[in-house]
Design goal:
Elements (H helix, E strand, L loop, with lengths): L1 H17 L3 E12 L7 E10 L6 E15 L4 E15 L15 E2 L2 E9 L4 E9 L1 E4 L3 E13 L5 E14 L2
Antiparallel strand pairs: 1-2, 1-10, 2-3, 3-4, 4-6, 5-8, 6-7, 7-9, 8-9, 9-10
């Protein structure tokens, strides 16, 4: 079992590196925790992304994220770890945001669903997000003003909400 798992990981990594499908991202977020407003935080979000395909619509990618920031009292925290799937709904080349870049850039709005763990509260959450302003090329993504909601998996109630102000993802060559 161990050899099989190691072989699969190596195969995915080799394929990913040659296909420009493995990348890393940095973003800036703000998050409000409904039940505990003092736990509201803002800071940086770091991610690893695996994009196996380049489909014209419903293009999936896997993401692992970690946030690091400060709470309302200025204390440094890691408010969440997240593993999930993001799906680009459509890929449009002729769009009104072309003035932002001198190269051809695709407009690829996306939705995401993820499992999120909050180590501060030992809490498992489900996260849903929407990235209405996502611009893509083969080597990078830019995302702006992406809202997200998290739900407590135990109670099913809204736990927190927030926004990723900007996120930059770069894919290895």
């Amino acid at each position: 079992m161990r050899k099989l798992l190691l072989s699969l990981v190596l195969l995915v990594l080799c394929t990913s590196l040659s296909a420009r499908s493995l990348g890393y991202g940095v973003g800036f977020y703000g998050q409000n925790v409904e039940a505990e407003p003092a736990r509201a935080s803002s800071g940086a979000e770091f991610s690893l992304v695996y994009k196996p395909f380049l489909l014209p619509f419903l293009n999936p990618s896997l993401q692992v994220k970690n946030a690091v920031g400060t709470e309302m009292d200025g204390e440094w925290v890691a408010p969440y770890w997240e593993v999930g799937v993001s799906v680009d709904l459509i890929r449009i080349i002729d769009h009104p945001f072309n003035f932002l870049a001198h190269n051809i850039i695709a407009y690829t709005p996306s939705v995401s669903v993820a499992y999120q763990y909050d180590p501060r509260r030992n809490l498992s959450l489900a996260s849903v997000g929407f990235s209405p302003f996502k611009l893509s090329q083969k080597d990078f993504w830019y995302e702006f003003f992406s809202p997200f909601l998290t739900y407590d998996l135990g109670s099913g109630e809204l736990d927190s909400w927030g926004v990723n102000l900007v996120r930059y993802t770069f894919f290895f060559k």
